Amino acid sequence: MTTLFAFLLTLGILIVVHEWGHYRMARACGVKVLRFSVGFGKVLWRRQRSPESTEFVISALPLGGYVRMLDEREGPVPSQWAHQAFNRQPLRSRALIVAAGPAANLILAVLLYAAAGWVGMDEPKPVLGAPAAGSLAEHSGMRAGDWVQAVIDADGDRIPVQSLNDLRWHVTDATVEERDLTLEVTDAQGRHAREVRLPLAQIGSREVDAQLLQRIGLAGPYSEPVLGTVMEGGAAAVAGLRAGDRVRAVDGREVPDANRLREWVRASVKDGEPVTMQWRIERAGRVLDVTVTPSVREMDGVRVGRIDAYVGQAPQMVRVTYGALEGLVYGVQRTWEVAVLSLKMLGKMLIGEASLKNLSGPLTIADVAGQSVQLGLAYYLGFLALVSVSLGVLNLLPLPVLDGGHLMYYLFEGVTGRPISDVWLDRLQRGGVAIMLLMMSLALYNDVARLLGLH
User: Quick one: how far is CA 27 from the chain centroid?
Assistant: First the structure.
């Protein structure tokens, strides 16, 4: 129920703001607005102050909306209202009305990002766990407990990294642009600063998806190799392990962090049978040697080892907040960055340099909306901002059925001095509908594939 409510709230806010942009600009340009609709299809609710005023409606299908303006191309217009018809307006006014919808979404995103910054978010500190063995991060010299302090850009400027989510953004952006990323890192106490260069250019933008950081080797935050809850009767309990035990070594190998310990436990199965492990632990200041024989479970068709205990501690968190003006600057900057990254990804998907798996639809939006609501207000505001940017950018694409397509018509009219012909307008609209249906089908397929674990 939370997911459904968050999804409908998200769609409602974004649709209303988008159409409100068109509506307000139309009114400002002197165009008569006949209907302001949230949704399509059967009207569920309507309000109209007088027969000559705008009709506001909510319709049954909430996947969009529209603003219907007086237009002589759609039916006869009384002579006293002819000057308020959309088609009678100068080219500049028509372009402004069309562009106002996407612009409203981008302005909303700025305010939402700013609000999220003002509210503040608790995010994982950018102290990294052990990189996966043989990964790009390991070959670059990353180690367990490395604290990423900053990113060094191409001009040598130092950009502070506030949280692990901030680092993820820099890594994703650099991978899409196919450029290497230089990090300034220290140990977990902030000492011994050094630079690490991640050769992300060799990965390629086709690899940008939800598993990108795992492939690079930056899977998650650092977690101490300390045991949490130990299940009664499980392998850990049988071995005499207790909550609070710190694991120092396994079979003579030093344990760098909880993630590496979990990997070794899962891999402790040979020919379908568990392999006994020798653990060295620290308990209440004493060092003990313990023999552990994991149990075997089947996960996704693979037999893996389990010790039936929670391995690791919660990562360190940092509070990320911004002041009044600082938050607005952050909102503008993040909106610009997300818009540019979205356009780059769309362009690379179009020419085959990025995976089409990155295209998401309503099921993914609903799922993430529900998760963000449960995490807190700031997370939901950030999610809403991200979708608002995406909606604004999508509507500016030069596809005939979108606002960007209409702006291309007006550009043609401005250059040639004449509007596009009705024949070509019909052809382009049909082509635009076909492309949109294809994109929607692909996005829905990706949604279902993610839910079924196929992506």
Answer: 34
